[in-house]
Amino acid sequence: MASGSDRSPINRSCDHCRRRKVKCDSTSPCSNCHISKLLCSYAVPPKKRGPKFRTRSGHQGRTPQEPSPAQETTRHPVSPPEQQETNPSISPTSALSSNIAPSPHFQTFEQPQERFEGPQNGIRPSLISIHEHLVSSIGEVLPHLPMEKIVESCLDLYMQYLFPLMPLIHEASARNYLALLRPEAYVSQTVDSPYWVDTAEHLDTGTRDLSSIRHFTLLTAFCADTAFVLPSDLFPWGHLIASHFLRASRQALNLYHDMDIEDPDSTSLIIRYLHTNSTHAAGKTRVSWHLLGECLRLAQEMRLYDSTSLDGLDPVEAQLLQNIFWQLYTGDKSAALLNDRPFALHQFNIRKLISLPHSLPGGHSLLDTRRSPNSELFESQLMTGFHKCQEIWNLAFELLLSLQRIEQSGPTPQSPLLTPEEKSKITEAYLRYLSTLDDLPMWYRNPVTFEATPNKDQVYRNRCFSAQRANLQVTYHCLKLIILDAFSGLGLSPLLGVMDDALMITLRKIEIAQDMINFLQEVPFESLQANGEPCVEKIRQVGANLLQIMQTIGNAQIAGRAELYFTTLLDILTKLDSKASDSLHQARG
């Protein structure tokens, strides 16, 4: 083949351009391949013109003119993705085209249809088909952006905005896996990484098959979650690619679904959790709940609540399993308290104490410390916020669980009997909840501004800390209101320091709403956006309480104050482009 300087004309499009469905200038190499640093290939026979042949009975599938995925591949060496120095002060999408108008509606995703029964059937043809359809679909909506740049942008955005909230990825490995999603990925690939599996050479060897497709499914799940969760302000073309990555990831998981349940690892949980997030952000709450339920059951079967379940595991695998368990623990409590779902991960359900620690001694770093601005200290700071969130949920849950026991043990649900000792325990537990944010480190306590320092690394870190701070504060105020609502409903608000009087309880609820609003107006708005639909649900809970006060309170002054705060929350929800704001608008009438 001619060198890049000798670009002789050819009378047909190269395979790479045909797969991406972009115009090929028929030089050798063509402009598209030259930019992507690829070698043009011409292995795919040109399609014949005219009507297609009918498929014979018993041989359904491709027509004679349609080459199979295996026929469309040719082998060329692909170098691993280079470690590039990123500028943390610049959005990962800033260097890309941002002129595409965002749409408020995501494209619908298809349900996976194929089922993989075992390695003896071979998964390569199906995986290649999924991969080619993904590349083709992305090429149609973003024809001028290389696939590898799109995936790299998804990963950069995840690390900046979502990793602080969901530390579920080993960054160095993920960046090596990026080659799996390149258009030429299933031609040939070699990546120098201890976690890499060469899919081109080992796709027919059982466990290698499983490892390879898990990596593909995980990467596409991360891309889907990032594209669905982050708004257009942070990810201008995310809405164009979200459904395509989610469909590819779910179809790929479906290829090895049964095998994955029989032999699960950290990816089994993380992939399903990311699918849960994506479908939730897409407005499919029932699908999201079903996927979360499967994830919770799998965590129970893996006995992750038991600290001994991590014995003998690779340090990276153990760290990821620990993090996903506590992420699921929080998700379980959130679904129960915010959406009235039953609890799953609790000692009463699993009939054993949860002995898994929040942090492993000498835990393995998940950030790639070779890349700026990452460091072990920075990751340790992020994990402080991650574990503090678990603490908030756990304290609130224990308070509400004690209330449930009281309600069930009383002579009637409305008149529970409490001993002085029980009252004292509840009050002490509530005081612990109130003080849970008092010991926050300085990097969470001080309001952060992104332009306050010229240090680019610190700007990046401040964004991460601010996203965590938004999560902690919004969660704290929301659960504080839920606790007050539950205790006052049984006439037990005095245990929380509030007189058992409807007017006093209402005033305290309005104060909690005011505290949340003050924070929402102070924190950088992109920090709220990064928290996605879970943040929206918590704000909606407070808004629903204010709406109830407006409709039931007889005091005009209090009703007016509640309406003022309700309108403010409604404006914030509208800016967050949330479906919750629509429901509150309708409820308000």
UniProtKB/TrEMBL annotation:
InterPro entries: Carb_Metab_Trans_Reg (IPR050797), XnlR_reg_dom (IPR007219), Zn2-C6_fun-type_DNA-bd_sf (IPR036864), Zn2Cys6_DnaBD (IPR001138). Residues 13-42 form the Zn(2)-C6 fungal-type domain. It comes from Hyaloscypha variabilis (strain UAMH 11265 / GT02V1 / F). One of its GO terms (molecular function) is DNA-binding transcription factor activity, RNA polymerase II-specific. Gene3D superfamilies: Zn(2)-C6 fungal-type DNA-binding domain. This is Zn(2)-C6 fungal-type domain-containing protein. The keyword Phosphoprotein does not apply. Residues 1-105 are annotated as: Disordered.
